[in-house]
TrEMBL record:
SUPFAM superfamilies: (Trans)glycosidases, Galactose-binding domain-like. This is Beta-galactosidase. Its EC number is 3.2.1.23. The active site is at residues 157, 239. It comes from Atopostipes suicloacalis DSM 15692. It catalyses: Hydrolysis of terminal non-reducing beta-D-galactose residues in beta-D-galactosides.
């Protein structure tokens, strides 16, 4: 058993210890790729890996827990330990991390009166239920119990959200009661206001800072706050931002590698560091987060490349080699190795095998519920994906006006299976004028949940309830009697491609290809509009023609020697007879930041 302490310095077995850490999120990388990324962290000379733990993947439905496969946090920690890496865990109910709803499970939204991230007894009850399961796994991994875990975090950047000390105290006491014996810390912006609001000094919790440059200035702010409260702690930047995340329709954010290396060196001369991110990975499925800006929610892309030292694939970038040079100069005694590099492959012109319209098969593949008025996604018991709302209405006049009241996030409006309008966010609620010839007309509205906000006051806003939340109006009255089809892709779909394909409707496109050798690859989506891609049944995430990315990463772990299947669910009616796999990611030409 080893001992890790927070004194005036970090002490490991009584000796001063500088934490040189990098963030790798096990939930954004497939288990088959964990070793590759962790090896490359160790090869650089780093000694620690840090990861968040998102509540929503481990308790996807209330009372149903999953710590297996992709979500086996214990296995991830053990792989790190096998490479002589220490581990920092951040098991907060809320993680931010550009992750869907900041890691909070969407089913919390069904409790209308609950106030999340607060001392609301109802919220704390839900947290406690999750923590009881989580810490059964985490506590045996602590360094003083023979594992590699050095420290754990309470909450996350709480000083940028609230100052409910009763809530923080509840989380701290709960962690102690559940067996946490390693040091517990908080992380916030380094300035006084956030540190004051987000810390729990009476429990002697280490305070750390989050920033990405001006280390001397930011560490001085953190040190001044600590000294003001009579503390003389080691200085650590828990998130040193080495890149940034990206959003649909915006240019990719880049940062010069040599500039980063100089800033990291400055931080290491003063204290300890955790690079955020070291390997970003991928927001598989529907797990991308969303930034909030006024009335607009800016949804983030599938790739979480982050312009990190390892790219989305896990291979070293120019930043990695700039850091490698700096590490060798600054710490010549530290052992380093050459990084692992994965190969990529290309498969050109994979032909379309079959296609079918969603409207032709929706009864067979979706969970159907009926109600007088349309229900939100959460009311339907659905967390992610799409809902198709359907009703039939008699013609009142030759031209009818429809309005969708209070919907999120993006919808397509169809009359008799013909697309009439697409609306996104603030456009929703605008008039949709339709010339109707038939006496009885079928209305279909496909609504996509594009991801909930992961930061700020909008975590409490009703905008995080998705789907249609109030109703649909014809002329000046609300329409009744709706069928609602939930399509979340959580279970394998049995798609009957013998049914009808209808041009310009949401549809499934199936492609197959054979390979003799399995390698990583990138699927080129530049000929498609918007939707998701399933590789051998696994949802690798969203694509959208507005960019900045026009491809999706496919780990070799998702592929098999022999035949493989690609299924594309495309919602705009933009598709191609062939599709290609390429060695490098594809980007839309935009002005880079």
């Amino acid at each position: 058993m080893k001992k890790f302490e927070v004194q005036e310095e970090f002490l490991l077995e009584g000796q001063p210890f500088k934490i040189i850490s990098g963030a790798i999120h096990y939930f954004r990388i497939l288990p088959e790729d964990w070793y590759h990324s962790l090896f490359n962290l160790k090869a650089l000379g780093f000694n620690t890996v840090e990861t968040y733990i998102p509540w929503n993947i481990h308790e996807p439905k209330e009372g149903q827990f999953d710590f297996s496969g992709r979500y086996d946090i214990k296995k991830f920690v053990e792989v790190a330990e096998s490479l002589d890496l220490y581990v920092i865990l951040r098991p907060s109910p809320y993680i931010c991390a550009e992750w869907e709803f900041g890691g909070l499970p969407a089913w919390l939204l069904t409790y209308k009166e609950m106030r999340i991230r607060s001392s609301d007894p109802h919220f704390m009850e839900k947290v406690e239920s999750f923590y009881e399961k989580l810490f059964e796994i985490l506590t045996p991994l602590q360094i003083d119990q023979g594992g590699p875990v050095l420290m754990m975090q309470v909450e996350n950047e709480y000083g940028s959200y609230g100052e409910d000390k009763d809530y923080l105290k509840f989380l701290y006491d709960l962690m102690i009661d559940l067996g946490v014996t390693v040091p517990i810390f908080t992380s916030d912006g380094p300035w006084k206001a956030t540190q004051e609001a987000g810390t729990l000094l009476e429990e002697n919790l280490l305070t750390t800072g989050n920033f990405g440059s001006r280390s001397k200035e930011n560490f001085e702010d953190l040190k001044s706050f600590q000294e003001e409260h009579g503390k003389k702690w080691p200085l650590m930047v828990m998130e040193f931002w080495d890149g940034w995340f990206n959003r649909w329709g915006e240019a990719i954010v880049r940062r010069d590698g040599n500039d980063l290396a100089e800033d990291v060196k400055e931080a290491l001369e003063i204290g300890s560091i955790n690079l955020y991110m070291f390997h970003g990975g991928t927001n598989f499925g529907f797990m991308n987060g969303c930034s909030a800006r006024g009335e607009i929610d800016l949804h983030q892309i599938t790739s979480y490349d982050y312009d990190a030292p390892l790219n989305e694939q896990g291979n070293p970038t120019e930043k990695y080699y700039a850091l490698q040079k700096m590490m060798k100069e600054m710490f010549p005694e530290i052992k380093t190795k050459e990084p692992l590099i994965k190969d990529s492959m290309e498969v050109q012109n994979i032909p379309l095998q079959e296609k079918v319209s969603l409207f032709s098969i929706v009864d067979d593949i979706a969970d159907k519920k009926t109600s007088r008025y349309p229900q939100s996604m959460e009311e339907l018991g659905q967390e992610y994906g799409y809902v198709l709302y359907r009703t039939k209405i008699k013609k009142d006049s030759k031209e009818e006006t429809y309005r969708v009241i209070d919907g999120r996030d993006r919808l397509q409006f169809y009359v008799n299976e013909e697309k009439i309008a697409t609306q996104y966010q603030t456009e929703i609620g605008e008039k949709i004028n339709v010339a109707q010839e038939k006496e009885l007309n079928q209305i279909d509205i496909l609504v996509e949940n594009m991801g909930r906000v992961n930061y700020g006051h909008k975590l409490l806003a009703d905008t995080q309830n998705k789907g249609i939340r109030t109703g649909i109006m014809s002329d000046l009255h609300f329409m009744l009697d709706w069928e609602q089809f939930s399509i979340d892709f959580s279970d394998p779909l049995s798609i009957n491609y013998k049914e009808k394909w209808i041009e310009n409707t949401p549809s499934f496109y199936r492609y197959t290809f054979e390979i003799d050798e399995v390698k990583d690859t990138f699927i080129n989506m530049e000929k498609f509009g918007k939707g998701i891609v399933l590789i051998n049944g696994f949802n690798i995430g969203r694509f959208w023609e507005i960019g900045p990315t026009l491809s999706l990463y496919i780990s070799k772990a998702l592929l098999s020697k022999g035949e493989n299947e690609i299924v594309i669910f495309e919602t705009e009616g933009t598709w191609a007879e062939t599709i290609s796999l390429e060695k490098e990611p594809k980007y839309k030409k935009m002005e880079e930041k």
